[in-house]
Specification:
single chain, alpha/beta, FAD/NAD(P)-binding domain, Alpha-Beta Plaits, 7-stranded mixed sheet, 5-stranded parallel sheet, 33% helix
Length: 398
Amino acid sequence: MDVAVVGAGGAGLCLLHQLVLRGPAGLRVALVDPVDRLAERPDDRTWCFWDDGRSDADPVLARSWDRVVVVGPDHRRRVLDLAPMRYAMLRSADYYAQVADLTAAAVDAGRLELTVVRTGADRVADGAERAVVDAGDTRLAARWVFDSRPAPPRRPGATTLLQHFRGAVVRAEADTFDADLPLLMDFTTPQPHAGLSFGYALPLDARRALVEYTEFSPQVLDDAGYARALEAYLPHVLGGDVPVSVEHVEQGVIPMTDAPFARRAGRRLFRLGTAGGATRPSTGYTFTAMQRQAAAVAGALARGREPLPPRPYPRRHAWMDAVLLRGLADGSIDGPAFFARLFDRNSPQRVLRFLDGGTAPAAELALMATAPQATMLRATALDAGSRLARTVRHASPT
């Protein structure tokens, strides 16, 4: 076996997708997961991302928009023109189907050999020439193994918040939504004691939209808490108590931490997805980083090079994310006002490219200059003190 992919969720199937598109011909690939998403194609999540309009998932996007609305805590609507960028929405069932169809075509054409193991991996062991995956009664030896299952960071971080949410695809009885103008962030929601909350609404057409309530906070809510939050937010989107039917509900939790994650777990073993650091600590966005890493891995294999997934975001962004997370967690940064101010004082393209890790230092300095200086200096000083204390503690003899 050339490649074993352990975990066939978003990160694992992003890699399979890119191996089909950009990997070497004749590659032998194993996919190890209890759920065969290539066959079952569950509608288990929605990915949203922004880019310049060149995603390999374009044929199956649910929607994309070149304008969005941000509503700050002052209740002012800011209509942002994203061109030449866009904001895109991708339903998991559609993406799984795309990957399944492309993979089947590659297998039929003899460009790829695929083995699907419908069992969870019990053990993954590194080796000098091969890594070994044990899954039930199956043992696989592969030249390279990519593991996207949840994994702890290399060391604990100073700050950890959770991005947790509940969303529903709702259908109104009459035309209610502007299908060409999604609500990206609405900070008029009640704010938690630590972190922030916001709502958003992504219209699929004039009568249907994905409406979601999201928090960045230390703890998740119970089911009743999510139900109350989403029920309270819906009238803001609908313009009143408009009757709707619920077609689909999704809920999730995404870790937001300044803890470092290892992309390499051994000589032949690598991490992907959130386990490999693809989740942006300050926003929770993951999909475009997964795509970048997967495309780089496929390209490295095609060139006969070691397929170490690249760093998903620049090192300097890790520091800036740590400062922001600390400020949100301890309340020294007013999150809704902070993000609204960024969009007020910068082009939306600069803000979105920064949040996706795609800006140069000059643009980052310009963006930082628009942040509240006293607040950011305090958060930076607290972060520096915490880092120094951790360094001294780890250096001290036990």
